[in-house]
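User: Can you write out an input/output pair for a complex, sequences first and structure second?

Assistant: Here is one pair. Inputs:
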Amino acid sequence: MERFIRLSGRAAAMPAANIDTDVIMPKAFLKGIDRSGLALGLFHDLRFDESGAVREDFILNRADMAQTRFLIVGPNFGCGSSREHAVWGMLQYGIRGIIGSSYGAIFADNAANNGLLLLSLPTAEIAALMAELVDGAGEMTVDLDAQRIAMGGYAADFDIDPATRQALMLGLDRIGETLTHADRIRAFEKAYLGRKPWLMSAASDEQ
Amino acid sequence: MSAPKTLYDKIVDEHRILSFDESGEAGERLLLYIDRTVLNEYTSPQAFSGLRAAGRAPWRPAASLGVVDHVNSTHPDRDADELDDGARRQIEYLGENGRDFGIEIFDLFDPRQGIEHVVMPELGLVLPGMVIAAGDSHSTTYGAFGVVGFGIGTSDIEHLLATQTLVYRRLRTMRITIGGTLAPGITAKDLIMEVIRRIGADGAAGHAVEFAGEAIGALGVEARMTICNMAVECGARVALMAPDDTVVEYIAGCPRAPSPALLAAARADWQALRSDAAARFDKEVELDAAEIPPMVSWGTSPDQSLAITGIVPDPDDLPAERRADAVRAMAYMGLAPHTRLQDIAIDRAFIGSCTNARLTDLRDAARILKGRKVAPGVRAMISPGSSGVRRAAEAEGIDRIFIEAGFEWRRSGCSLCLAMNDDSLAPGERCASSTNRNFEGRQGIGGRTHLMSPAMVAAAAVTGRLADVRELAAEELD
């Protein structure tokens, strides 16, 4: 996963509330067994009409937005389905960071697991950021090391969960890290299942 | 005497292998033991590929079950299934992963095949006090059994398979207490839709929600599953109900239930699975069940819903921050403000999904359909939640009621709930649906979804428009 330390780039506003993962990555792009080809799927039905023609009025289709790196979004962004394809598609398209007030919980976990930065700012800060937009867009810099965000005349410090920040900056092997605790997991499991023997009946080949 | 605890915190504590910060409070970062998972063909492939690439194997293969449900056709004749190449590969790869890693798989032709969240409970694989995480957002369903159930993405599926754990953040807690009694004809679906309408699509964000109150205790297990299932639509990461005798009796009748001796021991342990009387919740909400009407959604977010007796709202009457979204939703749905909901004509009717396709749901709909016919011009489909539900319904003769009314009696799968298979709406088609999400394009590009209970779908199917089930069911409800 690509590390995020400091990045400047184009930011596009998508202020509607409750933009769900069905809209972010429609079902037609969920039929793979690998992670490829998802840049095309990102916001597909907003970017293209039913005949496949480009919808010129959609913000990411504008000539000045070709290099969009950030989205500024409305509340509850990424709600709905657990499909991680939504996050893979963002990164493959080139989106590296999302700035909003709240997110679907599974989407937020998926983002953290893949190095997509999500910033959760108070709604007043989002409003202040939106006030800097020109034609729904702006030039944004997010410095994760310094925990500082700037766009136009707006600049502020932000809070972020320290573990998430560290993973974004260092790109850790999460499974490898957990497996350093393998002995403790094994000991826990033995005691736990010993204490609750009925749980084994619900396991397929332990009957 | 330890401090009073919520049910959620008790279960998390019981599964905490180690804490990274020892806080014990909401936000605590900990390593959580996961009892079970269920894998489907579309969110698991990349997790297995990740294991293969790293040379890892599942920690405890017997704690996993794989089920084909999302991409398969629901065509009545399974041998005639027209699968696209992608769907076929996903199904084959799930089977291959099952064989290579020793995980039990119910493929398309298995008599136990069905929607994952219907199959797991009906087998008896969901037991009180468990933590179940799975690659589908509706894993909250298991909360009906007093289980911490939640959806995860594919990276976390891989982590879970490799370690039987997840790195977990303890949630804040919320209690939704529903007092009183549901009026005749009102179902669990109406109840949860009213909760979502009231608190909003992100009203429970970041919270583990415990449903409590006499209206919950009066419900059967399947109705409780409907509530916990759809709680994710108001942002709940976990939905929970304290297990009671109703739950234990349900489990005792399942094919893989613990033996009677083990069940007796379990039962004693499960007594503790309730929030302590003095436990504090971060948020409390109270509702009176008696005031809940039959609900339908009018918009493109599950919180955009109303009583069936209502009218499509005027955006100008809504709070400023909801206005633009309402205007957009109405344009997508092809609805004008002030339209009476009962004047809205439908093209399609669908009963199915992990929310509302269990036997009691089918019985509810059949009561309305008996002796009636689907209105001319309406295409009506029923996809039972599992092959087991389908057989049980056939044994009761319910299939005949659906077929004689003019419904297509389909096979089991997620089907038109998310239209990953060949069941989908055409652009502009309007569907009365017993599913869980009315998102734009969810049931097909340009398709228009109205969420409601199975009985309300039946009522809409026979009248050809959104209808008040109470008017059709007057005699049954007396």
